[in-house]
Design brief:
The protein has helices spanning about 1-5, 40-55, 65-70, 85-90, 100-120, 130-155, 175-195, 210-220, 225-240, 280-285, 300-305, 330-335, 370-375, 410-420, 425-435, 455-470, 475-480, 485, 545-550; strands at about 75-80, 260-265, 295, 335, 340, 345, 355-360, 365-370, 385, 405, 490-495, 505, 515, 525-530. By secondary structure, it is α+β, with helices and mostly antiparallel strands.
Length: about 550
Amino acid sequence: MKNKIYCSIIVFLLLGLSSCQKNYLDKTPLSGPSDETYFSNQDELVLAVNGLYRYANYTPLDNMPLNLLLDNGTDIGWDRNNSPLQSLGKGNQDSNNGLAISVWTEAYKVIAKCNFILDNIDKVKDKSTVAIYNRSKAEARFIRAYTYQYLTDYFGSVPLITNVLTLETAQVAKTEKAAIVEFILKEFTEAAADLPLNHSGADVGRATRGTALAFKARTALNNARWAEAAEAAKAVMDLKIYSLHNNYGTLFSYAGQSSPEIIWAFQYLKASRTKTHSTPNALLSRNGLGFTNKVPSQSLVDVYPCTDGLNIDQSPLFDPKAPYKNRDPRLTFTIAVPGSVFYNYQFETHRDSVKCWNYNTTPATRVDNQDALNAFATFTGYCWKKYVDLDDKADRSNSEINVIQIRYAEVLLIYAEAKNELGQLDQSAYDAINLVRARPTVNMPLIPAGQSTASFRSLVRKERLYELAMEGLRLSDLRRWRIADKAMTGNFYGRVQRGLLAGPPQIDENGLANYNNVANRADMRVIETRVFDTGRDYLWPIPNIETVTNPKLIQNPKY
């Protein structure tokens, strides 16, 4: 589908086209489409739907897809740029926050395009095959529901708009979040019935039945609709077409793009002159010629358990003098840690490590270590590794690695969490979480039966962190569990700049690290000090311009 989706010229995308102007000039435009003539054939319909995929994948900062940005505004990541993402993480945002404005604006553009298609699709019903008509309608409904899903996650109650607006109907009040969630779940359910099980060839990347059901499961989970979350996740599992990728370390690289674990991913392709993304540029080390402006926290590094399954403050395998050894393999698959090889350079962030090995030459050579010397080297001492691939070395600003939006491991963890919250902690819930833990290349100890609801809750919350870090789900997790006020308050730490922690921090039941017991915590780099207003920050601000121009739209509390 890479060629089809992104090569499409989406002529229908002029918002509000014609219908709001009928009383002023009731004529068919001499150039471009109008709602009087569009759609006229099946090809136009397919082109229009193809365009939805491109517009649903927007890059509000640093030419990175939204989901790859979000974790860097939470407790596990930070944006070095003085950006609206940094403000959201720090807790000093207002209703003119640029990221919130971008997400809101782009989301409603996508919704408007979906509404245009759905309002006009019957004009071509008799000119399309039944399969294309049904699939196209289902795709438009899916993308609209997908968009409302994250709007409600971030903003809460928002205007629910399901038809093309006119000037007379343009001002719309909020719909209660619960009603929108009901709408989203219904749309995903009905879309799933008309979407195919899979695609091949140029259609790879389109939504499938599993895509709609997986997002239904995520939406239900984020809204504590436990029964529906478990049911939808089980429906995905019962399709028997998804499985975990054997090598966790390659899943987020070119080598993993065709993995049966990927349920839906944004597609990229340079050859067709389509959109690419600049994720490697933002994440890479200075030696790797990246900007290192999105970085993981010390607390995330410390939360990964030892290979015996115990937290580092409990495990006899943890050695403060070699803190990255004997750890859950997902730590070093997700994060570049000191002492490792990253992008063919010895990765050292100790400020006295002024030279390092360059393995791009044969034999290896010693070079100036920019990850210690450069003023803008990683502020935390670590780098993200997901979506960083040596194949992008020649053009780090134009990566075409597909960016996963939902994958099978998440579905399994949704199922485990929902079953536990329902009070139905049975073998199927253990099997789901243990399948993730037992993945080859991860091989973490299985969770034994006999857990209490509270202990299993702790395990699944931590498992989501180990498995899904840097995939954009942390913000919704913190909000769903109502622990953002704990996680997003106080000092955001990087590593000790000239040494190591004297001992492990305390890790609580939610996977949050507390450094009060660490003797040399004063030597840790404080990246910033954050605040979290519980009466405000569980929601993003609605853009000020929207509330000014639409008096019916009430701002979220305390903005």
